[in-house]
Amino acid sequence: MANNEIMQIGWEEWVALPELGLPAIKAKVDTGAKTSALHAFMVEKIIEEGDVKVHFGIHPIPERPEVEVYCKAHLVAEREITSSNGQTELRYVIRTIAKFGKKKWPIEITLTDRETMAYRMLIGRSAMEGKLSVNPEHSFMLGALCPSGYDDIVPKRKKRKMKICILSRSRNIYTTDRLVTVAENRGHRVEVIDATRCYVDISSNKPAVHYQGEVLPRFDALFSHHVNTNYYGIAILRQFETLGTFCINSASAIAHSRDRLFAHQLLSRAGVSMPTTAFAHYPGDTKDMIKILGGAPLVIKLLEGQQGNKGVVLAQTNKSAAAVIQAFRGLKANFIAQQYIQEPKSKDILCVILGNKVITAIQQETSSLEILTDEVTTPRKSHLIEITSIEKKLAIRAARVLGLKFAVVNFLRTKAGPRVIDVNSSPSFKRIEKISGLDLGTLIIDYLEHHARPRLPKRVIGYSI
């Protein structure tokens, strides 16, 4: 092949970055991006003999997060990069040799946090210009590279001591106390922070979270329990994410789950089975909305606020439904109305999700008219139940659609199949532990120890519209 001949590549390819000690990394070709991007964490700018460099870590294999490679490269620039979601971020730019098949040449790469992405690297236009052309119908046209080259790297499996933040109103809350006790017994440093007492320094260079007159340290991991669900509480959690803290449930995931209308819209779009749901604003549309749902009885839910049974009313006649709706409108409260499933043998099931697994399922023994009303906050009887593979997939999918790694998915087992009625992003431990016998505190800390990785703080500059 002549040196000036343009090679064809597929929409995804194996690439080697030999100067960084990366013999194989799966990359996605992105012709919409000018500069290539590489996943990085623990990024530090250093000076060696007058030369400015960047030291950083990378998890080159998404399926093996225990494999960590630490790299060093010359710092070319700090550049504003706008991602596909419109977010503009100030990133470090390095130059290194990239090997495509049997040919190699220097390319510029920006460093960013791609921990949650399927591809640790994106190949941009500047790396391909005059050398590569893309065939979007094929992949791995340059052949495969074996990631076994990382096998000699000793996995970082030793448990490191972490700084853990728990966003909670008080240490005395059962869930908070369980997490603090388990974490401290394992040697981790834990701080319980009330989000309403935090204030932030929103700076592109030195963003920080302040608490009671002190600048909080950078935490490795964060667990939020009953975070204030208004704009302020979610904003504080988002600021911790900006600093690179690993959050078991992200700010956006919690916000999505707490907004019942948006959560139902996301679940519906993803094909998750739910009872028929309606939303209306104009008072004159109330009768037609009730008609859409098949008439009373029907369930009326406040859109924001507490999850679970709170903020939920069962209206057993069309007249009472209209009265409740009128009362909510008088309070200027947003709400949705939902079909009430009248099946004597329907079962109300709580499915606890951690990561991508169902760790337990609990059936709530209530009468058919008590399942969704505020009158029964604690069912008379609850017991463990085996659920089907279809129900497991439904529960896991519901949590995943909302972006939740820890959640309780509430669904009804009906003749037509399972129907999701709620997804709780901040479940309390006490009742679940009592019924299931699980030690949720230990399971959560185990999850943080295995999944919390140092993240690259995002130096967000702005958003394009």
From TrEMBL:
Gene3D superfamilies: 3.40.50.20, Acid Proteases, ATP-grasp fold, A domain, ATP-grasp fold, B domain
InterPro entries the record matches: Asp_endopeptidase, ATP-grasp, ATP-grasp_RimK-type, ATP_grasp_subdomain_1, Peptidase_aspartic_dom_sf, Rimk_N, Rp_bS6_RimK/Lys_biosynth_LsyX
Domain of life: Bacteria
Organism listed in the record: Candidatus Berkiella aquae
GO biological process, one term: translation
One Gene Ontology CC term in the entry: cytoplasm
Domain ATP-grasp: 264-449
GO function terms (MF aspect): ATP binding; metal ion binding; ribosomal S6-glutamic acid ligase activity
Record keywords, A-Z: ATP-binding, Ligase, Magnesium, Manganese, Metal-binding, Nucleotide-binding, Protein biosynthesis
Protein name: Ribosomal protein S6 modification protein
SUPFAM superfamilies found in the cross-reference section: Acid proteases, Glutathione synthetase ATP-binding domain-like
Cofactor: Mn(2+); Mg(2+)
